[in-house]
Every structure is written in C-alpha cells, then in structure tokens.
Amino acid sequence: MDKKAVKTKKHPQEGLSVPQLFALGIFSVGGGLLLWAGRVGSKPDTGWLPALAIAAVAAALLTAAVVYSFRRTGCRAVSELLGELFTSVPARCILLLLGIFLTARAAQTLSLYTGMTGRFLLPKTPSLVLAAAAVVTALVLMYDGLRSMARTAELLMLMSIIPAAVMLTAFLVRIDTAELLVLAQPRMGDIAPQLTPALYTFAGVECVIFFVGHGRGKGSRTVPLAVGASAIVSAVLFVGAVGILTLGGVQSSDYPFIETARMINIGGVNLTERFDILLILLRVLFIIVQTAVLLYCASISISSFFGREIRRRTAPVLCAVAVVASLLMDKALLDRICTVGLYGTLLGLIPAVFVLSLFHKKQKNGNEKSKKGRGAG
Q: What structural domains and CATH numbers belong to the chain?
C-alpha cells in the first residue's frame, strides 16, 4: 500500500470538556431533525417511527466504526486517517467530495433558516440579508475556534432545557392516543421512503466524529450518547406533535414543532405568543451553530485537499458559496446533492474506512519492531 499520506500540517487539537463535546454532538445531530421536519411534512407516509429506530441503530454502528478506526490507526485528523488508509490521490478526492457535501449541507440548513425566519420573525427582511447575517455569525464562531463553538453549543443546550420541558409537559397533557395508534401500525412499504429523512436526523454525527470527537479518550464516548439522546428527544417530539396536531396536521405543516408550540396552554396560562417566539429564537441560534460546525468541517476538508493549512482563507469562500447556493440553487437539486452525499458518506466511506483499518498496523509499532530486529541482529 502506498504510504504517501495527504501532506497537511496537523490540525491543532483543542481540548474540549465532556459537556462541550456532548453539546456539539447534540447540535450537529439535531440539525438533521430540523431538515426532517419539513421532509416529513411533505410526505403522507406513516413509516417514520420505525425508520427512525433503524437510522438510530445505523448511526450508532457507524459512530462506533469511526471511533474504532481512529484508535486502530492512531490518527488524530481526518486527512491523516484517509492518507494512511488510501493512496494520496484517492484520499484527496474523498476530502474534496466530503467538503462539497458538507458545504451543500450548510446551504440546505441556511435555506431552512431563511424560510423559517422570514415567515415567523422578519417577514419583510430580504433572504440575502438573513442568510448573510447567519453566515457572518457562524464565521465569527469559526475564527474564534472550536472551543468557542463548543461553549456556544453548551450554553444553548442549557438554555433549551426549560422550553423542552414545557413542550414535553404539553405533549403529555394534550396527546391524542388515537392518532398515535396510526403510527404504531405502519405498512412496510411506508418505511423505505422515510429512511432518508430519518438518516438526516443523524447525518451530522460524522462531522463531530470525523473532525472533532476522535482521539479524545473518554470525551469521544459522549458522541454516541448524543446520538442516542437525539433519537429519544426527536421521537418524543414527533410523537407529541402528531398527538397534538394530528397526523394530517404534521403532514401539512413545514414547521410542525413551531405550530405545536403555538398551541401550548398549560394550567390556563397562555404561552402561545411568547413561547413560540422563544422557541424560534433558539432554533435560529441552533441553526447558526449547526452551520458553523458544517462549514468548519468543510473548510478543514477542502484545505486538506489542497495539501495546506489554508482554513482561514477557505472558510470565507465556503460561507459565500453556501449563501449563494441556499438562495439561488434549485431546492430539489440541492436536496439530491445532500442525499447522495449522505449515503456516500454514511453508507460508503465510513464502512470502507472501518474495513481498511482492520488490516492496518500502526506505523509506530512497525518502527519499534524494526528497531528491535536491528538491535538483535
């Protein structure tokens, strides 16, 4: 095997606490949940609940595979890992495609953000201004470094505890069990169309694992926990939304969570106007962090393709590309690019890396053995 790795400088590994890494995992994984809300609303299928379970298991297995691959090879950066397992040219091509996919994901997330913000918060503000404001904020987070993004995600996660508790309480009070029986009896033919939107819920995990969460000892174990936590939260939220809005209401709404929040009324205290605004603001901040994580990982990937540490010059260019793509690119085409990238990354690249790592021996061990052999000779 050609050992010519992609020649890049090692990316500095900033130490993250377990809560910070867990928060990044939650936000990266949960970004897919926002995309899924619109997808479920546009399809009259009822197979999303078992599809979610299948996707959760797949995401957990793939997460474990990537963590194992990093530990097996002893690598600490994605460019280093791919350079060890593939020859130079394929490794660079994979990094380029990975960067394009992550940029498309960022554009898709920005498109959701501009639609939601323009509809509920600032209806008269041009989409270009909304997207530019989000990207500039994300760029500031990126330039401050990974630790800054992690702290922001950790703070937002803490801020989300109270609204999440209110929503869960409302779900328990108002759930219509008759509607939930429909979800409990899905037809097998309905499950397959929902696998892609279900995987979108967990697609963000490859960002945290590939670029952030590996090589950090106990901290890397929090990423699978984040996947599991998002699975539980997303299942509860969708079950609650269906129980309150009915299945037809969820299918006809592009933003079922926000529509559900508008109907919350606990103990006679009307929280409609204030609570849904709070939820939207948290969603906006949520999406900005998600965009920052995606573009941060995309800039590392594309910088590694060129074989240099040029992340600070790559990031602004990718931000501009994401804004233009979110506003001008056909949504169906953008969706196809993200879907191909999703399956290519989750179901193609990660298993290939895992299989190759099984036959890989750490370079350090090989050097030590050769030295011992020479000494004995």
A: 18-359 (1.20.1740.10)
Give the model's pLDDT for residue 128: 92
Whether this prediction's pTM lies above 0.90 is answered by no
CA–CA distance from 143 to each of 113, 326, 366 (Å)?
22, 22, 38
- Count other C-beta atoms under 10 Å from residue 315's C-beta: 22
**Rounded to whole angstroms, how far apart are CA atoms 316 and 292?**
11
Buried b (16+ CB within 10 A) or exposed e, 175-206: beeebeeebeebeeebbeebbbbbbbbbbbbb
What is the residue-averaged pLDDT of the chain? 72
Instruction: Please tell me the predicted confidence (pLDDT) of residue 112.
Output: 81
Classify the C-alpha dihedral 72-78-83-86 as positive or negative: positive
State residue 318's pLDDT score. Answer: 92
Does 330 have pLDDT greater than 70? yes
- Quickly count: other Cβ atoms within 10 Å of residue 333's Cβ: 11
